[in-house]
Amino acid sequence: MLALLLAASGVTLIPASADGALVIDDASGIRALLTSAGKYTSTLSPQTIGRTLSSNVGVDLLAEQPEWGLAKKGPRALIFSRGSIGLSAPIADLKSARRALEAWRTGANRAGKIASKRLFTASGPRAAALLKAMAKPGAFTRDKALLARATGPAWIYLKGRPPLRAAIFALDASAAGLIARGLVQPLRDPILAGPAPAPCDGSPPGCLRVGLGPSGRMLLSMALSQLRQPALPDSPHLVVRLDAIDAQQLSDDRSLPNALHISAADAPALAGGPALAGQLDLSAIATALARLTPLDAIHGTLAAGAYAANLIYAPFLRNSGPLTLTGEPAKTGADIEIRLPIR
After folding, report:
1. Are residues 193 and 270 in the same domain?
2. What residue numbers bound the domain in which 296 lies?
3. I want to staple 50 with a disulfide (CB 3.0 to 4.6 A). Which of 57, 60, 96, 142 is the partner?
């Protein structure tokens, strides 16, 4: 049974050394999602993303070129590892695939091979090592709970960092947006221990309500520490608010904490509610970035990047969201759902 699950899910395409992977059986939903996003910013259009894929792994998985001779069916896996990216895809026409591969891998930091009727390509500083790992990956996990989430037209795997072990999300993508549902596993202690407190008062740009387990508390403490925020209150039931965004406080890479006004407080649990509920108003981010001027951009690299992000992504931010996050404790971790609607 486990062998059938492994084969059907495409998990055997992922090497143990991978930092993450996107496995695609049907790219139509992702293509529709990017088409909607591309109405507001060309950098997220299928054409732009496709050109990036063609450069990095040879094949535009959103509109596959016939000269690569790929099979019409079968999972395609994009593998990410230590700054390099690779592709594993099934082949129908070996001669065509060999010709296309020879033409593509003449570029710098590129590697590729064909084995067992699959195409393997890789690019980046560790392309050769990634190619070797992809060619003989085996199963990166035999955890049945995690493998059960590796389903649907597309799914994503993420290797964890302490206190997390790993996560897999099934992706439901369409012209209306993205829904990611999956399992996040801790190394040891529970992530969530619900229920969370009641919804935030008012309409802050961001609000996170959570009933924390030990691993969840460690994760949230690490995130707030990076933003130089005060320690979390000694309570398992917390509300973390993003009360305001002052983009004009941005300068260099260390200035982000100055621009985000964050508060954390304990609050009574809301009986019957979720263990995790979060919301981020993307239009509020667009409004904050719109206040930046070219003079603000000269204050430092982060300020310049934020000003550029406003020029490129403001229409998309105003027409998408809110980004929402919900979760419940699971036997082997936390069941998480992320939603990003696009208008």
Report:
1. yes
2. 189-326
3. 60
